[in-house]
Specification:
By secondary structure, the protein is α+β, with helices and mostly antiparallel strands. It has 5 helices and 11 strands; from the N terminus they run αββββαβααββββαββ. The radius of gyration is 19 Å and the shape is globular. 26% of the residues are buried. It binds flavin mononucleotide. The site of flavin mononucleotide has 17 residues, from β2, β4 and α2. Flavin mononucleotide (FMN) binds at residues 34, 47, 49-53, 67-69, 77-79, 103, 106, 108, 204.
């Protein structure tokens, strides 16, 4: 593999505006999975919002990370405030059928407005299903979900008004939910690979773009 050629343009991270740094991070590190995060505030009010600074980072124990940026005025987003308070979150999987509903829940709404109510067409409202280990419910229409408990919250960078630029939440998965038909076992009882076509995962690209998983390439390990 050749090194970066002279034609490549080099940008020093320290010289970038926050806007351009966001541009490069989200355009280059792509596609990213989307965590559709359900939380509850201290009064039990529900919140639901998507986050694509999201990744699986450990299998034993199953661990995920989600990074939540501070608002322009320095206040934490409702999702982060709720996680810091309760340590509980449920992450629903984003697939093609729920893409528009997921997008609708990214609207900046005051804490008293329930994103579950605003997402989806009339007659096709989002429905919740109770979780088993944590309080925040999962999205019924999502094909998979992870009930999680926060283990660490790490502030990153310096944002406005003394707030961190972002907060990295590390969370342990307490249990998994999979839609009927997705889980299959081989003769030895091991889980088989879930059919990517059945899960129809969607990835976030830069800007307003999303990637489907309809063009899958299989590559045996060397
Ligand atoms: C696909 C998608 C991915 C997003 N990823 C992030 C993210 O990784 N971090 C973040 O802070 N905001 C992200 N957002 C924006 C939040 O969803 C948005 O700020 C939302 O209003 C936060 O809601 P809350 O205040 O109820 O927590 C994303 C939005 C979309 C549509």
């Amino acid at each position: 593999m050749s090194e970066a050629t002279p034609e490549h343009e080099r940008l020093d991270a320290a010289s970038l505006s926050a806007r351009d740094a966001y541009r490069l991070m989200t355009d280059v590190v792509a596609p990213r999975p989307i965590a559709w995060v359900s939380t509850l505030d201290a009064r039990g009010r529900a919140n639901l919002a998507p986050f694509s600074y999201y990744q699986a980072v450990c299998s034993v124990p199953p661990t995920v990370i989600v990074a939540i940026g501070s608002r322009g005025d320095g206040r934490p987003k409702d999702t982060l405030a709720n996680i810091l308070e309760s340590r509980e979150l449920t992450i629903s999987h984003v697939s093609e059928p729920v893409l528009a509903a997921m997008n609708a829940t990214s609207a900046e709404l005051p804490p008293e407005v329930d994103e579950w109510e605003v997402a989806g067409e009339p007659g096709q409202r989002l429905q919740s299903r109770p979780s088993s280990c944590v309080a925040p419910p999962r999205v019924a229409q999502a094909l998979a979900a992870l009930e999680c408990r926060m283990t660490h919250a790490i502030p990153l960078g310096h944002g406005r008004h003394g707030a961190p630029s972002s907060t990295l939440v590390i969370a342990r998965v307490e249990c998994f939910w999979l839609a009927p038909g997705l889980l299959q076992r081989d003769a030895r009882g091991h889980l088989r690979v879930i059919d990517p076509a059945a899960l129809a995962s969607v990835g976030r690209l830069g800007g307003m773009s999303y990637a489907r998983t309809t063009d899958v390439v299989e590559l045996p390990r060397p």
